[in-house]
Amino acid sequence: MKSLRGSKTAENLITAFRNKTYDQQKYMNYASIATEQGYIQFANLFKQMARGVNEHAKLIARFLLCSGFTADEICTLMQMPIHSSDTITNLDNAAQIQTANATRIYPEYARIAYNEKYLEVSILFGMITRADDNFGKLCATNAAMLENGTFFNKKEVKKWVCNRCGYVYNGYIAPEICPLCYMSQNYFEIQHIE
Questions:
Q1: pLDDT tens, position by position, 69-102
Q2: Residue 63 — left, alpha, or beta (φ > 0 → left; ψ -120 to 50 → alpha)?
């Protein structure tokens, strides 16, 4: 691959690296808040998102390092405050960020890389777009279900499992209190295997 130095693609990679690093920190913070609020399934989602964006940052950094950039050039983090709130607000915020990445930012980065003849980078941005789109949809769907009261209340019988003790319950609504470990309904999630 030709050198990235002086290209708009390099600028986009550096910005993407910094944003992904920032998002990783933010999502770990969101995971802590979800855990404090007893939403273990959302803590796990935020941790998964943090791992995902961390992997994106590593892949981006490899392109820059292989093109002659130094770690000091790419690792200077932007100092941005991490605002967090309750789990629903954090899910909404994450959905907005990931959706913006998937619908505007990374498709544009991919287009620029393609036009500048950095095909591998264009492909990378395209794949990140798909991952961010998935995370955005997961967050938006879960936030909507929490807001409208359907996250723990389904129209069909579901198999609910407690994230703390593994207790399994079949019903339309997750138990308000786990009969085994006495944790709140927030610890329950739908088990998707039969």
A1: 888 888 765 566 677 789 999 999 999 999 999 9
A2: alpha
Of the candidates 140, 69, 68, which has an alpha carbon nearest to the alpha carbon of residue 100?
140
8 A C-beta contact, residue 109 and residue 16: yes
Per-residue pLDDT tens for 135-156? 999 999 999 999 999 999 999 9
Question: Are 187 and 155 contacting, i.e. CB atoms less than 8 angstroms apart?
Answer: no
Count the neighbouring beta carbons within 10 Å of the beta carbon of residue 86. Answer: 14
Cβ atoms of 164 and 183 within 8 Å: the answer is yes
Are 91 and 42 in contact by the 8 Å Cβ rule? The answer is yes
d(CA 92, CA 153): 20
pTM for this entry: 0.87
